[in-house]
Write a structure and sequence with these properties.
The protein has about 260 residues and is an alpha+beta fold. It folds into two domains: about 50-160, 2-Layer Sandwich (Potassium Channel Kv1.1, Chain A), CATH 3.30.710; about 165-255, 2-Layer Sandwich (Alpha-Beta Plaits). The protein is about 30% helix and about 20% strand. The protein is rod-shaped and about 100 Å long.
């Protein structure tokens, strides 16, 4: 076929052949269109680790990978300083893979890292909160230290209180006294059960049935199992309320459980 004729001022349809003896540098690349930014430097995989978004940690022989943003969640923490101050002053070397060497227990580092990720302390049953507290203090994560201390204190209070216990009392009363006795109960006493004992006394033309009233109260004012009862004067003052407008007939003794 006949060679195509190229006119001056028109771009060539085929690239020109390079001269082997030409040592001149290639022409610079044309500028990018508006709104398009040219890539600066090598790809992310070839960049130095100090400028990478991801950080590799070797904690006690176990590798963890996280972002700099996560590790810098606590600005004054050891991990934040490790990412921002890559130098010998922190006393942390790198292994052959470029991971930071940290001589700590990797079992407890998982909850530490997860806390920095989402702000919640999640522990497996086999992990002790005291162990997490030690690691949080080492990494200088102040908010996590406060959180773990509060949880330990709550668990200690819950253990010292133990299961809820109750004290029961059985009161013998007449039918006309039931309403007043139940309405005047105080100091945490609650009505539990009413038992008819099947006997009656004759008051003129009316018979008054006898009942056993069972009441209970939680031992929420106890410390280590030692019950702190109200004073005798307070007891007398409370039960005297139940005696107001009662029948002059002698009452039977109160029964206690």
């Amino acid at each position: 076929p006949a060679p195509t004729e190229e006119r001056p001022g028109q771009p060539s349809s085929s690239p020109p052949h390079a001269d082997p003896g030409d040592t001149r540098l290639p022409p610079p690349a044309p500028p990018c269109p508006p709104g398009v930014q040219a890539a600066a430097g090598p790809p992310a995989a070839d960049r130095p680790s100090t400028g990478s978004k991801w950080v590799r940690l070797n904690v006690g022989g176990t590798y963890f990978v996280s972002t700099r943003q996560t590790l810098c969640r606590e600005p004054k923490s050891f991990l934040c300083r490790l990412c921002c101050q890559d130098g010998p002053e922190l006393g942390s070397d790198k292994d052959e893979t470029g991971a930071y060497l940290i001589d700590r227990d990797p079992t407890y580092f998982g909850p530490i890292l997860n806390y920095l990720r989402h702000g919640k302390l999640i522990l497996n049953k086999e992990l002790a909160e005291e162990g997490v507290l030690e690691e949080a203090e080492f990494y200088n994560i102040a908010s996590l230290v406060r959180l773990v201390k509060e949880r330990i204190r709550d668990n200690e209070n819950r253990t010292s209180q133990g299961p809820v216990k109750h004290v029961y009392r059985v009161l013998q009363c007449q039918e006309e006294e039931l309403t007043q006795m139940v309405s005047t109960m105080s100091d945490g006493w609650k009505f539990e059960q009413l038992i008819s004992i099947g006997s009656s006394y004759n008051y003129g033309n009316e018979d008054q049935a006898e009942f056993l009233c069972v009441v209970s109260r939680e031992l929420n004012n106890s410390t280590n199992g030692i019950v702190i009862e109200p004073s005798e004067k307070a007891k007398v003052r409370h039960w005297r309320k139940c005696m107001i407008h009662s029948s002059p007939v002698p009452r039977k003794n109160q029964l206690s459980l």
